[in-house]
């Protein structure tokens, strides 16, 4: 599933114009190309480069991540796509979050790219289910603070999936996933009495 997502992102990257690559993504202050750079750096930067960047960033993981993404994104887009394809089967398992975290990172970031550009992209049901379970399962360090889903019930309207107790947040599985990951842009796709509470918990 991870390999398929990497190849799909490579295919998408190859279709993007320079203007689209410079456009803001849904992910903080990153451009579309910087999001691609982040996903390339995850598998291609190497432990040495990652450690050096972490030291330069005062061991702040978020700052190091942003620097590594920006550095990698300086490469031509076609090169980034080629690296993704070359590393599609890379077995790297991120610490703590494991393979579910890697899969979720790819799914979320692809929508970070597609949504602001108005590009449709259907996520597959089984990977989506894995990501939803991961985001509410307590291991989603860096993705979902524990307090975000606490006391709410999340229900997918297009996937046989639900979790939690409390006021309901209901909508397409993709929107539920993005909202759990802190993407405020997904809120208009959700309804239910729990949406207002979730809104207050998003950055």
From TrEMBL:
Protein name: Mycothiol-dependent maleylpyruvate isomerase metal-binding domain-containing protein
Domain Mycothiol-dependent maleylpyruvate isomerase metal-binding: 3-89
SUPFAM superfamilies membership: DinB/YfiT-like putative metalloenzymes (SSF109854)
Pfam families attached to this UniProt entry: MDMPI_N
Family annotation (InterPro entries): DinB/YfiT-like (IPR034660), Maleyloyr_isom (IPR017517), MDMPI_metal-binding (IPR024344)
Signal peptide range in chain numbering: none
Superkingdom, natural source: Bacteria
